[in-house]
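Late entry, evening session. Most of the bench is empty. Finally got around to the prediction I had been postponing all week. Sequence below, unchanged from the version circulated by S.P.
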Amino acid sequence: MLSAFSALTGRGRGAAARLAAATLVSGLLAAGTTVAGAGPSAAAAGAAGSQGGATATIGGLKTYGAAVVHGDSGDQEISAGLFEMSVDGGGTLQTYCVDLYNPTQKDAKYHETPWDGTSLGANENSGRIRWILQNSYPQVNDLAALGRKAGVQGGLTEQDAAAGTQVAVWRYSDGADVDAVDPQAEKLADYLEQNARDVAEPRASLTLDPPVLSGHPGERLGPVTVHTGANAVTVVPPSAMSGVRVVDEEGKPVTGTSDGGQVWFDVPEDAADGTAELTVQASTTVPVGRAFTSESRSQTQILAGSSESTVSATASATWASEGAIPALSASKNCAEGGVDIVAANEGDESFTFALLGTEYTIAAGETRTVTIPLQEDQAYDFTIEGPGGFEKRFTGVLDCMTHAAEAADNTTTQTLAEPSPATVGGTSTDTNLAATGSSAATPVIAAVAIGLVVIGGASLLIVRRRQASGQG
């Protein structure tokens, strides 16, 4: 069975292309984020890379000062400091930006992401950024001691500490020529930059491996291994209507486990072909240095502090009595500039799908990773179909480069516009760092974005109609 595919590209690197791509992918996500039914004909939609951990909504800058970015077009003054996010299910996160020139979309939804799914994956200084976070505010809340280490005369305020830390992060994340306005904050930024050392990427707060699997009725499908920093996790089984149980290696029902624990889907022998999903949940502090990305093209964030927060992950199983039995997952691969599709087939027949004009055949018993090449800022929306009405849809936008990296790649650059007074210093709780990226072109950008959403929807509809016609 071949798949329908629609990929819409924002190849321009200016503000209009960025915001249009962000609006476009938001529309696509809104159109397909539910699972329609429990059988193999259900079309599950998801963003590549969001396979577990914390999910949160960004609220805006909470503690910040001012910074000046030096560029070819002149100096631009912007806000620099800590963002705050509200975690789904409970908890609060504090983050710094690692994507200086990209706008922040207020109330954007973020999910925990491996470094490989962001610009940090290809940045040789990512470990130094994590060192800065571990050795500065808010992890170090003794500002007097921090100030003494940095050689600051007169002490540090929270605003100084947040601004200085953010400036030091930008120097490594974006290669930016940026200084803090306040002398104390600038002194801290210099100290952090000069003393930073390479530190390894932190482990995810909660993931399941593998996130998808397949097999036959009458089998225990698995194992699914839990990876977490939490002391314990709760296992939420599939609906009782499916008849599928979640069990341990001995076949006993499981309601909870811990790091390294393994669970299986116990599928009844007389079960009709179908799909089931389990969820694991925990309460833990998310490790400092975890990346957070948004599919609405809001700027990438890196974790600086976490309260006790709710984290979760899901795994799904598909079974059939005969034929091909596909299991599909996706994740962004910034090193290769695309999206990795992991396709497994535990059935007794092969299945074939096509993306971007290329056909891929997964033999019976084979697991294969296929990298779908995409361009930076390219919005994608594709559906892979299998036997028995099986469908899996993946949507998102490839956001692997910072503005500085794009400029080095000889692409058109975007500069910061003059900030409004509300974006520099002050105490507004609604200030977004990249509000400084707004300009008089905003109405035109919005019009372009709306047009692209309409075109994108039409493209998907045309592809699916043509497919339906061919099958008929």
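Two things to note before I forget:
Helices lie at 15-31, 126-134, 143-150, 158-173, 183-195, 403-408, 442-471.
The two ends are 13 Å apart (CA to CA).
Will write this up properly tomorrow.
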